[in-house]
Automatic annotation (TrEMBL):
<feature type="transmembrane region" description="Helical">
    <location>
        <begin position="285"/>
        <end position="305"/>
    </location>
</feature>
<keyword id="KW-0812">Transmembrane</keyword>
<keyword id="KW-0472">Membrane</keyword>
<feature type="transmembrane region" description="Helical">
    <location>
        <begin position="371"/>
        <end position="393"/>
    </location>
</feature>
<dbReference type="Pfam" id="PF13962">
    <property type="entry name" value="PGG"/>
</dbReference>
<dbReference type="InterPro" id="IPR026961">
    <property type="entry name" value="PGG_dom"/>
</dbReference>
<feature type="domain" description="PGG">
    <location>
        <begin position="280"/>
        <end position="391"/>
    </location>
</feature>
<dbReference type="GO" id="GO:0016020">
    <property type="term" value="C:membrane"/>
</dbReference>
<feature type="transmembrane region" description="Helical">
    <location>
        <begin position="399"/>
        <end position="418"/>
    </location>
</feature>
<protein>
    <submittedName>
        <fullName>Ankyrin repeat-containing protein NPR4-like</fullName>
    </submittedName>
</protein>
<dbReference type="InterPro" id="IPR036770">
    <property type="entry name" value="Ankyrin_rpt-contain_sf"/>
</dbReference>
<feature type="transmembrane region" description="Helical">
    <location>
        <begin position="325"/>
        <end position="350"/>
    </location>
</feature>
<keyword id="KW-1133">Transmembrane helix</keyword>
């Protein structure tokens, strides 16, 4: 990452007389005459030459530099291409639809829809070619794939493009939510006027943006963040649903789609299997971890009554004046406190109702806190063990002491490395609690999480 930022990135220049060659050269294999790299000058030339030499000697630097050049070139090309592209004008414009509140209304609409559908079917052969060509315009494709610079540039140069929809009448907000493109959603959130027009649209299947959030069809493709375990996956889906619900007008929440389902009913149907997997996973995890925590508590409790070196006739420990003895005592107390606390958290998970609302915040938070306390209990137990070894053996050489500490402490970093993806979630759990104490204000994001300003 540091090498990436240190590498020089030269700007592209487009000559004014051949600016149109950019468009002509897109279909050919020849490089366009209108585009060229700006030659570095002065100190930058020396700096670039140094990196050129390193890139020839090291393939990894050459690869990183190539990626940076491509990204930098795209940054310069995107405004030019967006300026020339008007394909979004060939797509449909969004049309407003009324809210459906249930099956009775859908039955009444059934006969009327038949004639409309017949008309659509008769017109389909003449428009099938055009529909296949303009199934998705560049704005919609960039939204689906999550290319934020292209979406931002199109909306900057052509704000009216946001009103156009796909063949299934889904706008960019529908597609961003459906494909779990969080950054695109954040971009639209910063445009209140745009999102206020898009959040009320209903697609050809009668789905609102909340129905798109409930649909799990594109979940595995769209989620780039690695989530550990079904419980974390279900939590991410619930938070995504809650975030979309916050930007949907309240009277659309009870809307029924063409299958006579509300968004909540669709969510329950789509996530039943995930809920069962999450219930089994969190039960098994809590039971296994509580067993380990009880074993740790048993060991450190027994160690408290078996003082290293024994006791003097007056009952005081032999090494009560040694700093290592106080290290042993403190680590032993912390270990038993953390292990028993983690047992309490794991038992509270097993006694909780394992339903959708509890997976949103409570259960994953308890699991993460329990894991953290278990990790701390193991770390302090190994520190107490290392202090005991040094007290009993009385080694004078410093390097030998250091070696013993490393060997005794080895299981702790091993456990941490294996569970590191899980611990990344801990910072997100405790962040809302510590943000006010650090002087930051809480800002509500569209996905139901608090962020610091």
């Amino acid at each position: 990452m540091l090498i990436y930022y240190c590498l020089p990135a030269r700007d592209l220049e487009v000559t004014t007389n051949h600016k149109d060659d950019v468009e002509i050269s897109l279909g050919s294999n020849q490089p366009p005459q209108a585009i060229s790299w700006k030659k570095p000058e002065g100190i930058l030339k020396v700096y670039t030459s140094l990196w050129d030499f390193l890139a020839k000697e090291m393939d990894i630097i050459e690869k990183i530099w190539k990626d940076k050049r491509i990204k930098h070139a795209l940054k310069n090309l995107i405004p030019l291409l967006v300026e020339k592209d008007n394909s979004w004008q060939n797509s449909k414009e969004a049309k407003g639809k009324t809210i459906s509140l249930g099956s009775v209304e859908n039955l009444c609409k059934g006969d009327n829809d038949g004639g409309d559908q017949k008309g659509k079917d008769s017109a389909e052969p003449t428009n099938s070619k055009k529909q296949s060509i303009y199934k998705y315009n560049p704005l919609l494709i960039a939204t689906i794939t999550g290319i934020v610079p292209i979406v931002a540039e199109i909306l900057r140069q052509h704000p009216q493009a946001a009103e156009h929809v796909s063949y299934s009448e889904q706008n960019i907000l529908h597609l961003a939510i459906k494909h779990r493109q969080r950054e695109i959603l954040e971009l639209l959130k910063r445009k209140p006027i745009t999102i206020s027009r898009l959040n009320e649209m209903i697609d050809s299947d009668g789905n609102t943006i909340l129905h798109q959030a409930a649909d799990r069809s594109y979940y595995s493709v769209a989620i780039s963040e690695k989530l550990i375990g079904p419980a974390m996956q279900l939590q991410a889906e619930l938070r995504w649903m809650m975030g979309v619900k916050n930007i949907l007008p309240p009277h659309y929440i009870m809307h029924h789609n063409n299958k006579d389902q509300t968004a909540e009913e669709l969510f329950n149907d789509e996530h039943n299997e995930l809920l069962k997997s999450a219930q089994e996973w969190i039960k098994d995890t809590a039971q296994s971890c509580s067993t380990v925590a009880v074993l740790v508590a048993t060991v450190v409790f027994a160690a408290a009554y078996a003082m290293p070196g024994g006791n003097e006739p007056n009952g005081l420990p032999v090494f009560h004046d040694s700093p290592l003895f106080w290290l042993f005592t403190c680590m032993d107390v912390v270990a038993i406190a953390c292990s028993l606390s983690s047992v309490a958290f794991f038992l509270s998970i097993l006694s909780s109702p394992l339903e959708y609302p509890f997976f949103c915040h409570g259960l994953p938070r308890k699991l993460m806190i329990g894991f953290t306390l278990l990790f701390l209990s193991m770390a302090t137990t190994m520190l107490a063990f290392a202090a005991t070894i040094l007290l009993v053996i009385r080694i004078e050489k410093k390097w030998t002491k250091s070696l013993l500490y490393c060997i005794a402490f080895f299981p702790v970093p091993l456990f941490g490395l294996l569970q590191f993806p899980m611990y990344q979630k801990v910072t997100k759990i405790f962040r809302p609690f510590f943000i006010p104490f650090l002087g930051f204000s809480k800002r509500r994001s569209i996905c139901g999480k608090s962020r610091a300003n």
